[in-house]
Specification:
single chain, alpha/beta, six-stranded mixed β-sheet, 13 helices, 8 strands, about 35% helix, globular
């Protein structure tokens, strides 16, 4: 069944033709030295395993299709960051909190993403310990101190100039903050427009803290927008939308944030005039495209999780030892909140080599050639 998303117009299925003979050629051309990832449960590789948090995914059935098994990823397999690493010729990034994130193991980058973490410090506090964006930036600075001890200044500067910074946050600031008035007061204090302004202002402050290390050479930043949260099983389980529809209000407030974030990318590119390069990832448009063309992508189930419980398996995440669906590649959502590995691969493809509709004003592959 085709998903109709309220007043959001369907997008035409895009076919991206890449005239490249092999993955090795792509890697050789882009030549990224490392990737540093900031995010939430969509890209957490297991940082929360080492925190006192309720937001953990280090048990079966999570990781059922991942080569390491349950690693802490909120997915059946790989995240978008994992797939991007493959395309960039970079091995799986270690979680910042992992005991293996030391010495030579961090030379290809580190993943700081933390489930329940958000742009705001208080986001996700009802789930226990998590790394907010500001804490993730502090963790990144700790990593840089270690790298300084392994490289001379000129070598480190060149290394960072060819590294990619990926930021993907904001979802929890809605799902685990603004849209939960029983836990948070933000929806009473801010209207949707002012809340979007607040988030982007705080986001900007942290991005510029990372960018301030430009004196060492960091210059490539990919900033992903928020997907259509009104279409995830958790929101559909509220019963607010009719069959085959999403929660319009949730998508509308998220769109306010995304519009401001894309404008921020323009402002930063104009300000730094190619000294640093910023790109916006249109996660919303990419997921809407998949929803409206689900069958063409091979998906048959778009409104419920492959595992979980509650109305249409959309109220909670996967419970330990629960049995997931068998045909996981036919499901868009793994649990109430997170996409399957199959969706993550499509989103990574769009970010890496997609058109300007998906990644603006240029894609990651193009950034790697600069």
């Amino acid at each position: 069944m085709e998903i109709v998303i309220g007043s959001i117009m369907p997008f035409v299925l895009a076919t991206v033709l890449i005239i490249i003979s092999s993955t090795e050629l792509i890697v050789a051309q882009t030549a990224f030295t490392a990737m540093f990832a900031f995010g939430d449960s969509l890209t957490d590789p297991g940082n929360n395993n080492y925190l006192n948090s309720l937001a953990k995914a280090n048990y079966i059935p999570y990781g059922v299709d991942f080569y390491q098994g349950p690693s802490g990823r909120f997915c059946n397999g790989k995240t978008v960051v994992d797939f991007l690493g493959e395309m960039m010729g970079i091995p799986v990034l270690p979680a910042y909190t992992s005991p293996f994130a030391t010495g030579q193991n961090i030379l290809k980058g580190v993943n700081y993403a933390s489930a329940a973490g958000g742009i705001l410090q208080e986001t996700g506090h009802n789930l226990g310990e998590r790394f907010s964006l500001s804490q993730q930036v502090e963790n990144f600075e700790n990593t840089l101190n270690v790298l300084r001890s392994q490289m001379e200044d000129e070598e480190l500067s060149d290394y960072l100039a060819k590294a990619l910074v990926v930021l993907s946050l904001g979802s929890n600031d809605y799902i685990n903050n603004y849209l939960q008035p029983s836990f948070y007061t933000t929806s009473y204090i801010y209207n949707p427009k002012d809340y979007a302004d607040l988030l982007v202002n705080r986001y900007t402050r942290q991005i510029l803290l990372v960018q301030a290390i430009h004196s060492l050479g960091l210059r490539k930043f990919f900033i992903a927008g928020i997907g259509p949260l009104g279409c995830i099983p958790n929101q559909l389980a509220t019963g607010a939308p009719g069959p085959g529809k999403c929660v319009d209000y949730t998508n509308e407030v998220v769109t306010m944030f995304n519009e401001r974030l894309q404008s921020l990318v323009d402002e930063l590119n104009n300000k730094y005039n190619n000294e640093s390069i910023f790109a916006y990832g249109n996660s919303f448009g990419a997921v809407v495209d998949i929803l409206n063309n689900a069958r063409a992508y091979g998906f048959r189930v778009t409104d419920k999780g492959c595992c979980g419980i509650g109305r249409n398996k959309g109220q909670v995440t996967c419970l330990p030892l629960s049995v997931p669906c068998i045909k996981r590649n036919e499901y868009m959502f793994w649990d109430a909140f997170h996409p399957t590995q199959a969706v993550n691969q499509i989103l990574a493809d769009r970010a890496f080599s997609g058109s300007t509709f998906y990644t603006y004003p240029l894609n990651i592959q193009q950034m790697g050639l600069l």
